[in-house]
Amino acid sequence: MQKKLTLTIDEEVYNGLHQVIGSRRISHFVESLVRPHVVKHDLYEGYREMAADSVRESEALEWAEATCGDASREES
To answer: For residue 71, what pLDDT is reported?
Structure first.
């Protein structure tokens, strides 16, 4: 469920938001900035969900093995 919130900000910031972000996208922009600071997620649960994704884990392992070889070829 969404809730409406009224904020008071400096006119220069307001104009910048409209110019850079666009008037229809400001709420989403502000929410994406604020969310990580106020909504706490269970980090371990996130890791469990990622580990359960076998396709993602397979791609990550493939990438890690491919880049490991790159490090051994670097000049000292």
So the answer is: 63
Q: Residues 40-71, buried b or exposed e (16+ Cβ, 10 A)?
A: eeeeeeeeeeeeeeeeeeeeeeeeeeeeeeee
> How many alpha carbons fall within 13 Å on the CB side of residue 11?
0
- Whether the CA torsion 36, 42, 44, 47 is positive or negative: it is negative
User: pLDDT tens for residues 16-38?
Assistant: 999 999 989 999 999 999 988 88
Q: Are 51 and 57 in contact (CB under 8 A)?
A: yes
Q: Residue 72 has what pLDDT?
A: 59
Write the Ramachandran bin of 6: left for phi over 0, alpha for psi from -120 to 50, otherwise beta: beta
